[in-house]
Amino acid sequence: MRWPVAIAVMGLLALASCRKETGTEPMEDAPFALQLPPGFTMPVVPPDNPLTQASVELGKALFFDPRLSRDGTVSCASCHLPSKAFSDTARVSVGIEGRTGFRNSPSLGNVGYHAAFFRDGGVPTLEQQVIAPIHDVVEMDHDINRVAALLREEDLYRRLSRVAYGRELDAWVVTRAIANYERTLISGWSRYDRYIQGELTALTEQELRGLALFNSEELNCTACHSGFDLSDHAYHNVGQYFDYTSDPGRGRITLRPEDVGRFKTPSLRNVALTAPYMHDGSMPTLKHVIDHFASGGLPHPNRDPEMRTFTITEEEKADLIAFLGSLTDERSLDQLP
Length: 337
Known about the structure:
By secondary structure, the chain is mainly α. It contains eleven helices and two strands; from the N terminus they run H-H-H-H-H-H-H-H-E-H-E-H-H.
């Protein structure tokens, strides 16, 4: 349901004065000790927002605070549940006063490696992404400057903001702190990862059969689901509908007819936890997803050329689903106790 709106952050406060904290100077900050799976590189971190302990702690506190919404009922975590790999269980996520959007909330696992955000890639940075749901009338229906004003005098927020950014909590700090917390949500500790690192007993025989199907030329899954994140992070029309008037996908951003119906390829990491599926949550199970791809999709003019029909038995579907289950992380994505 995320609206990819570009909202300028206006009226940011100047640097806060060097006021003492309850009689003591604020503690010094330190780099955040990010744990990376074998073979992973550091996520992209902008020069003006280094990944530090205080910034991540501040970001986590804000991420789970429902006061980011106008009526104090919806937090970031309301639509990105830690138990579901920071995705949602609803077909489309629900904002304040029960307002419903038009898209399903994807997992935030490995989001720090993405080059653009939302299912249509409408926002280029994690920091800018933070603003959109706060201002969206369907989601939080608030103003980020008012959020900062409401929270800045609380001891925790005041201390962490000064330690991490040398200033009082303001809109600039809110966007950067939440973005940094999201950068620490790393997915890469599954049994599948142990298998590709050489632990050949990490997968069952059924899961190995599913892996062989996944890698097969006939199913062609790896055309889009490849690399460490099992996604090319590109945009594809998979023939889900004939008519995308209600949600043109990437075409909503570029206004190009050839982009209508194209959506960002989701990662398959933790996919067993992130139902329902597709950009609009219209497919309740992995079996529904497999059946759609086996059909080749509907012949929309923009349907990706990689979409093609294939034959798969019920036993093979079970094998493939078993393999997809092996992509579930064996530890929490959240690295902050």
